[in-house]
Amino acid sequence: MHWIWNLGGLTWRELTRRVYAQILKDDVLGRAAQLSYYFLLALFPLMVFLMVVLGNLADTGTWMRVRVLEYLAHVVPPSAFTLILSTLDAISKGSGSGKLSLGLLGAIWAASAGMNAVIRGLNAAYGVKEARVWWRARMVAITLTLALSISSLFTLTLFLWGDRIGSFIAEWLGHAALFQTIWGWAQPVLVVAFLMATFSAIYRFAPNLEEQKWVATLPGAVLGVTIWLLASYGLRLYLVYFTNYNRTYGSVGAVIILMLWFYVTSLALLTGGEINSEIENAAAEQHEPGAKFFGERMPHEHAWRG
Asked: Is the dihedral of CA 70, 170, 191, 100 positive or negative?
């Protein structure tokens, strides 16, 4: 599948033009707005769940809370982060013994609803209809949600205890100083790698496609994460140097900023799916083996265009 690495025979300019046209046709901007709403619904139940689980596992809830929020602060715009922090404080003070189970159920429900929106968006990107029965499509959404939640929890745990575990191993091997240097460089690389793996898993299992190869999801995963990182950084710069939403909109400004960041995230995720679709469609036009035309669920299937 060498066509994956040469963009299906397209130049960067041709790929950009095709992807832009499909973004408009598939109403990606509108779908991203819908998806950002589901992200907002899932955020706080998921954060409460993570705080309680990690706090219970380590029996150091305060330290764990600080470490989790430190990593979040590097990505989320400052005003949105302040909103998240104040909301978590309010939830923590008013929660009871059922916080863990309610947080888990709330996060799964909202996130799986958001994953359904992702499935619809990626089906539109590939031009395929949802042929799976409703319960199977829902199970795909819930399974993806649970799998991504578990992998996120594992990755977060690795970062929270990584220094201690790695230091113990390094001291045992006699290379403690070397580990500290390597780990400092490895952490951001692992974060980006995890994001790309997450995007790739969504592109692999969410759309209603047969014989979808992992390698075929890589261009959209790499470019989607790159778009997201650049857009998130650009949004932070814009909010810091060019505007002040809190001064203009008051307390609701933080909510607007958080929704805007979710919108950027959703747009990057769906755009990655459009990129994969256009590259594969271009490869199919060149009669490359294993490539699917727009509208095909598997190679050489009769295509439809809605």
From this structure: negative
From CA 235, how far away is CA 239, in angstroms rounded?
6
**Which tens digits make up the pLDDT trace of 5-64?**
788 889 999 999 999 999 999 999 999 998 888 888 777 666 666 666 555 544 444 565
d(CA 269, CA 44): 21
How far apart are alpha carbons 100 and 87 in whole angstroms? 16
**68-82, 95-109, 286-300, range with greatest mean pLDDT:** 286-300
* Cβ atoms within 10 Å of 33's Cβ, excluding its own: 15
First to last CA, the chain: 28
Q: What is the largest CA-CA distance in the chain?
A: 63
43 vs 18, 28, 81, 304, CA distance in Å?
A: 33, 22, 12, 37
Nearest to 52 by CA among 95, 90, 81: 95
Q: Are 202 and 184 in contact (CB under 8 A)?
A: no
Residue showing tokens 């919108």: 263
pTM beyond 0.85: no
Residue type, 89: D
Start-end of H helices in 95-131: 99-126
* pLDDT tens digits for range 210-263: 878 888 899 999 999 999 989 888 877 777 666 666 566 666 666 777 788 889
Q: Are 257 and 77 in contact (CB under 8 A)?
A: yes
The predicted model gives 283-289 an average pLDDT of 86
Of 237, 191, 16, the closest CA to residue 7 belongs to 16
Where does residue 109 rank: exposed (0-12), middle (13-18), buried (19+ CB within 10 A)?
A: middle
Element spanning 163, H or E: helix 134-173
